[in-house]
Amino acid sequence: MAQSGLIIVDKPAGWTSHDVVAKMRRVAGTRRVGHAGTLDPMATGVLVVGVEKATRLLGHLALTEKVYEATIRLGVSTNTDDAEGEVTATASASGVAETEIHKGATALTGAIMQIPPQVSAIKVNGQRAYKKARAGEAVELQARPVTVSEFAVLDIRAGDDVVDVDAVVTCSSGTYIRALARDLGAELGVGGHLTRLRRTRVGPYDLSLARTVEQLAEACEILPIGAAVAAVFPRRDVTAEEARVIGHGGRLPAAGLGSGPIGVFGPDGELLALVEEKGALAKPLAVFAG
After folding, report:
1. pLDDT per residue over 173-192, tens digit each?
2. Alpha-helical regions (H) of the chain
3. Pairing between strand 44-51 and 33-36?
4. What are residue 148's DSSP bridge partners?
5. Domains 5-63+203-224 and 233-287 are alike in CATH topology
6. Is 40 part of the annotated catalytic residue set?
7. Catalytic residue among 10, 19, 40, 82
8. Contact 159, 76 (CB under 8 A)
9. Distances from the Cα of 251 to the Cαs of 68, 244, 270, 275, 279, in angstroms?
10. Of 30, 94, 155, 239, which sits 20 to 30 A from 5 (CA to CA)?
């Protein structure tokens, strides 16, 4: 059996997240592989892949903070809000002042309500929005609360009727950088779309830990599941008796470690479970023992 843990992949452009998973199945020698937080084919950068028991972590890891480097083109709108879509409108951005671009980015920072792109994986009446959109149907997507803790403009480059804006975005799970590009363009009255996206961090996992597909094909580096949990979540070490209880899916008294997932480790340092404290009890979210 393959080692349980995480593979931090530097996803290449043109690959879907599923393409990466398929490749890592061959590299790791197991079918039990998944990923946390989809990256569009155009995007590159950090994709967290789980192997064997670590696939149970992925839903929790997907909820962590993410950081992106992006380039937004003002003056051109597309039906996907990125460079892979069809152009739907153009407007000269040559008159947009740099101060207005900075103000627009500031307006999209903080706790905001964001309408996802029409071409997205969100389900509408049981069907993915992108399938409906590509079939020519108008898709009604509801605005969702997201948090953009940083939308920093790094560089502004003016071209013929377009302006390219390089930015760094730090945001919560569920934030679409494509939608930020669209909304910045709308705020400035000229439209906009995303031309480049690189994810540089997912939770504590950044590009310094990531390896290219080619590097992983030569030497598959797997971060052990215990180290992966300890890097993200609070740690709780338990006695042998408590380890027996949690190993059978039982509950423990709460230890006051917060409301999010907590990694529970046995006397030998082995990861036993992820738990969540509710009131006076710590209840298992996922059990890894055995």
Report:
1. 999 999 999 999 999 999 99
2. 17-28, 58-61, 98-107, 129-134, 177-187, 213-218, 225-232, 240-247
3. antiparallel
4. 110, 171
5. no
6. yes
7. 40
8. no
9. 38, 11, 18, 9, 12
10. 239
Pairing of strands 192-202, 44-51: parallel
CATH class for the domain made up of 5-63+203-224? alpha beta
Q: What is the pTM of this model?
A: 0.91
Q: What is the distance of C-alpha 8 from the center of its chain?
A: 13
pLDDT score, position 134: 61
C-alpha–C-alpha distance, residues 216 and 48, integer Å: 13
Top CATH class of 66-200 equals alpha beta
The structure tokens listed for 43 are 């995007």
141 and 115 Cβ atoms separated by less than 8 Å: yes
CATH class of 233-287: mainly beta
CA gap 277, 147 in Å, rounded: 24
pLDDT tens per residue, range 1-41: 678 999 999 999 999 999 999 999 999 999 999 999 889 99
Sorted by where each begins, the domain ranges of the chain are 5-63+203-224, 66-200, 233-287
Whole-number pLDDT of residue 64: 87
